[in-house]
Design goal:
Elements lengths: L5 H14 L15 E5 L2 E4 L4 E4 L2 H4 L8 H13 L10 H13 L4 E7 L2 H16 L3 E5 L8 H6 L16 E4 L14 H19 L4 E7 L14 H12 L2 E5 L23 E4 L11 E6 H5 L16 H16 L2 H22 L3 E7 L2 E9 L4 E2 L11 H12 L2 E2 L2 E2 L2 E4 L7 H19 L4
Parallel strand pairs: 3-14, 5-6, 5-7, 7-8, 8-9
Antiparallel strand pairs: 1-2, 2-3, 4-10, 9-10, 11-12, 12-13, 12-16, 15-16
Amino acid sequence: METFTDVDKEQILHDNLEYTLFSWSKQAGLNPINAERTEGVYLYDRDGKRYIDFSSQLMNVNIGHGNQKVTEAVATQMRELSYVYPGMITKARGDLGRKLAEITPANLTKAFFTLGGAESIENAIKLARLYTGRHKIVTLYQSFHGASYGAISAGGDPRKLPVDSQAMPGVVHVENPFFYRCPWHSRTSEECAQRAADHMERVIGYEGPQNVAAILLEGESGTSGCIKYPPGYWQRVREICDKHGILLIADEVMSGFGRTGKWFGSDHHGVKVDLMCMAKGITAGYLPLGAVMVDEKIAHSFDDKPLPLGLTYSAHPVSCAAAVAVLDIYEEENLIENAAEMGRYIEEQVAEMAKQHPSIGDFRNTGLLGCIELVKNRETKEPMAPWNAAPSQMEVMNQVAAKIRELGMYTFVRWNYIFIAPPLSITKDEVDEGLDIIAQAISIADQHTH
């Protein structure tokens, strides 16, 4: 294995900080992990420190790091052909399209390939508008759908606020069915589901149902805090769509490909969707790729007229070959079943942790897509840091995040949330290792409860 001197490490650090920009960060004072290699659920920096990856990087490295089956598939494809324009066909493209049609609901029969999640959202919105002849898109406030202009406009995440003076028009946001912090102070989760759906339908009535092309929902909530859909919500949204001729788009970019213990997050709700956006787990992050799965009626509407969508790297053969290998790995290594089993185990362990840590207010989890919400007071649910917290409000949570990193873990700490979304290949022993680190870090927050 190649070794790096201190001079090499400093040069790598210098070149990255001096010549590249980093996402979502002020550029001065950065202290990024100087990553050298990865294996399984671990990554290693150039000082040899090991970090357990408890968020699968960006909730995308679902199969774990360093699976050489993907390397071999990519190398084989590149030896045959690396790129042809999207108007040509390749074996990898056809193999992947067929496989996606097999694992998605039966009405989703064709894939339009993109290079990532935001592009999938953009193209799904285009398709919905083209097919319906309508222009409005209804989404949830506490959601994230990507960072390109259309996708960030569709989301309700506050990262859009600095750039929303030129937001994509036609997006209508509604309240989430968030039972833990229900806007309608519901007594049961089912009541919250009903009230949230009624609220959505009222807003659609104000906006003009004849103007609404689609409702866009994450298959399961991700970076907004893993807000679980209460029972009945998806069913009511489907009823609203059917009543008004509105399409239902599932954003499975984060919740897809086994992450929730089923192939897709929306599979938990048994509801037909008309368009499904995907990326991340389709290649487990090994190469960029995304897709929009399209209902057969929508696909056939373009049989005799041009489909006005196109990308230079659509159906990139090397990315498609990687995806075919990754989809095989999910099945060969029983990763989806493991995600469901480890998810249940994590839920049991966090329930025990909550008895020892008064700052744990709520834990919301589906499979291996989970989030601990820390509070100052369980009765009032006062958050340890508020939603969209200013830097001055993040003192405690910054200490928690620093402790997590110091103890050898990489995961997301956002506002008062700690995310638990490790690779689907994780074992019980590795779960225990990670939860022990989180427990030690949460002890810092416990000192600020009352």
